[in-house]
């Protein structure tokens, strides 16, 4: 680590500097000695006798060996007999007045704050000191360390806004996607963040709707008014660096947009890539995509996390299953059942070995969405055969055999099933002839009957804590969230007065007892988690700002709940609360690609989650403390 130091100078010193360029850095090597050094026959020559003046007399002549800096910044190092040390520039900005190279000479005149270097020429030198690892302005946000300024790589063919070099120090450079992914673009120890890493930042500070405000520089120096929501809570100092249009050939949007390339291509469209955008008239920060030939700003992320995790909270279990997975039921941490596309599989050793079970014959590929077991032997699964035929299957021998049960409707889908004992259970979904449907059995599924629901459209999730008390959730025909509940075994289902929220589609619901519960869903843009402490009569939103879809939630006790889903770049989302929902914190997930669709916790420290990757490969995650 470089020690920062101010080193006093006793007097000015004479000698020569050799300047060279490497990986974005400019170096001057000073060799103390007389001005009459003979350069005859050397590939470079001095342009005449020059003196080197450090105007405030910083270092003695016999101590100075090298100075290293980046042009147009105030970041300066001197090499002394104690090694590389940084000179802090107290005032002014580094200003290069002359800086050109021909076959024979370099002319340099620079003002570094109150310190001045006169023009010098080349001179042959001895061994060049090893350059230090540069120290950059950085800030820690969550487990990430971000550079707190727009990166200026001085990369070949890159641009500065308006071709005005004064903008380089203010906004950094503008680069194409190929340039930001080019060799030597990033300094050692840093990289261009992926879209997933940008989304991690966005989610950590509150989601798409507010992240821009929390990252933008405040005031109107680097953004035009109104600079909506700008608080710069984390000293990220995001600036509106604008863009250069490849097709238009025009610089645009200085101080109105900050566009930051990610390292991730946008695969649906050739030659497109993801970038993060902030605006002067919004508090948002959103991941968008555009042609890779556009020139945008870039922020760098440090390779080393701020708090290196010992391991992910959720670890992927190796397995050889072949299809999408939608739901999981853990009877205990050894006995596990998972279901999905054309698949029911089980494990009796905690997921080391998986066995695909034989299903009843179906006419078309079957999607199995729901699973419920009351012990290691007795369970039910539900879904749809093809697109239109609802199915309910039952086993009493741990899945060795599955038997189809007769349902009271013939066209639709069952999305979720719950049993409280060997006899009483509910399943919910949609009847294509009558909209939302709830079916009920009190004989283990030998007979299923329709119960009247006040909800129309579709029900996604169902849960119960006894043979009398149950809840279901979904969305109505007005695109509002719906929660219905019964306290008499389903004889009457009533609509929760506080469960209707515009534009939210609830996909999962879970209760710890007859008062405390959570429901989760989304509005197609951000996910929402709802909470109740009065048995489901009234609900409050605990989360509603983070981009993504939330598919499953489980209440572990009256304070702990876990929810899973995915964001819109197909990265898994996992959130947990340990304080009743006052704070929901993201969980680390070993895989970075895929959708998490189901979760089941055995207790606060043990559970599983399932889903599938962007290539539809199954994902099984385990959480073990």
Short structural summary:
Helices cover 4% and strands 41% of the residues. It contains 4 helices and 47 strands.
Annotation keywords:
mainly beta, seven-stranded mixed beta sheet, four-stranded antiparallel beta sheet, 4 helices, elongated
Oligomer: single chain
Runs with pLDDT <50, length 5+?
A: 1-132
Q: Count of helices?
A: 4
- Strands in their spatial order, largest beta sheet: 1-7-6-5-3-2-4
Number of E-state strands: 47
Distance between the termini: 35 Å
Rg, rounded, reads 32 Å
- Give the helix level as a range of percent: under 10%
Shape summary: elongated
Q: How much strand?
A: 35-45%
Sheet with the most strands, sense and barrel status: 7 strands, mixed
Class by helix and strand content?
mainly beta
Mean pLDDT, rounded to whole units? 79
Explain what this protein looks like in three dimensions.
By secondary structure, the protein is mainly beta. Among the domains are: 3-117, no CATH class; 138-302, no CATH class. 4% of the residues lie in helices and 41% in strands. It has a seven-stranded mixed β-sheet, with no helix packed on it. Strand 27 and strand 28 form a beta hairpin. The longest helix has 10 residues, at 195-204. The chain is elongated, with a radius of gyration of 32 Å. The chain starts with a strand and ends with a strand.
């Amino acid at each position: 680590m470089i020690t920062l130091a101010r080193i006093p100078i006793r007097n000015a010193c004479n000698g020569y500097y050799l300047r060279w360029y490497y990986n974005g850095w400019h170096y001057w090597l000073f060799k103390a000695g007389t001005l009459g050094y003979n350069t005859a026959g050397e590939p470079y020559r001095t342009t005449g006798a020059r003196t080197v003046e450090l105007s405030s007399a910083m270092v003695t002549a016999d101590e100075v060996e090298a100075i290293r800096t980046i042009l147009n910044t105030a970041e300066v190092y001197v090499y002394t007999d104690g090694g590389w040390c940084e000179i802090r520039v107290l005032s002014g900005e580094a200003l290069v007045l002359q800086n050109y190279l021909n076959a024979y000479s370099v002319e340099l005149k620079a003002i570094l704050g109150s310190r001045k270097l006169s023009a010098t020429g080349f001179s042959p030198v001895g061994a060049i000191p090893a350059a230090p690892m540069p120290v950059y302005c950085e800030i820690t946000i969550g487990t990430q360390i971000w550079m707190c300024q727009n990166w200026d790589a001085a990369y070949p063919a890159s641009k500065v806004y308006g071709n005005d070099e004064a903008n380089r120090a203010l906004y950094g450079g503008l680069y194409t996607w190929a340039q930001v992914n080019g060799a030597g673009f990033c300094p050692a120890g840093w990289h261009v963040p992926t879209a997933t890493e940008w989304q991690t930042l966005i989610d950590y500070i509150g989601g798409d709707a507010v992240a821009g405000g929390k990252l933008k520089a405040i005031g109107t120096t680097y953004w035009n008014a109104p600079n909506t929501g700008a608080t710069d809570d984390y000293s990220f100092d995001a600036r509106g660096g604008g863009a250069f249009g490849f097709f238009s050939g025009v610089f645009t949007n200085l101080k109105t947009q900050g566009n930051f390339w990610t390292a991730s291509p946008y695969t649906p469209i050739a030659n497109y890539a993801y970038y993060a955008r902030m605006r002067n008239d919004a508090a948002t920060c959103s991941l968008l995509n555009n042609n890779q030939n556009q020139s945008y700003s870039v922020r760098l992320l440090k390779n080393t996390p701020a708090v290196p995790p010992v391991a992910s909270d959720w670890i992927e279990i190796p397995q050889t299953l072949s299809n999408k997975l939608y739901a999981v039921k853990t009877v205990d941490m050894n006995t596990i059942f998972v279901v999905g596309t054309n698949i029911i599989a089980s494990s009796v050793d905690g997921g080391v070995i998986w066995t695909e079970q034989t299903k009843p014959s179906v006419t078309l590929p079957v999607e199995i969405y729901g699973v419920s077991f009351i012990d290691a032997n007795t369970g039910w699964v539900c879904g749809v055969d093809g697109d239109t035929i609802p199915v309910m299957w039952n086993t009493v021998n741990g899945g060795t055999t599955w038997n189809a049960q007769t349902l009271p409707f013939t066209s639709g889908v069952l999305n979720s099933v719950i049993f409280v004992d060997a006899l009483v259970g509910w399943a919910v979904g949609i009847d294509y002839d009558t909209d939302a449907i709830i079916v009920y059995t009190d004989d283990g599924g030998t007979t299923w009957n329709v119960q009247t629901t006040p909800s129309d459209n579709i029900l996604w999730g169902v849960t119960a804590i006894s043979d009398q008390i149950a809840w279901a959730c979904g969305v109505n025909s007005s695109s509002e969230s719906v929660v219905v509940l019964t306290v008499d075994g389903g004889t009457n289902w009533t609509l929760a007065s506080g469960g209707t929220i515009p534009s939210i589609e609830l996909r999962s619901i879970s209760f710890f007892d007859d008062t405390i519960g959570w429901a989760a869903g989304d509005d197609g843009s951000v996910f929402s988690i709802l909470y109740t402490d009065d048995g489901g009569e009234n609900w409050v939103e605990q989360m509603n700002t983070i981009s993504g879809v939330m598919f499953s939630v489980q209440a572990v006790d009256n304070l702990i709940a876990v929810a899973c889903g995915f964001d819109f770049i197909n990265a898994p989302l996992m959130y947990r609360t340990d304080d009743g929902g006052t704070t929901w914190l993201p969980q680390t997930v070993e895989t970075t690609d895929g959708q998490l669709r189901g979760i089941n916790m055995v207790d606060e420290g043990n559970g599983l989650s399932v889903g599938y990757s962007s290539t539809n490969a199954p994902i099984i995650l385990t959480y073990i403390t």
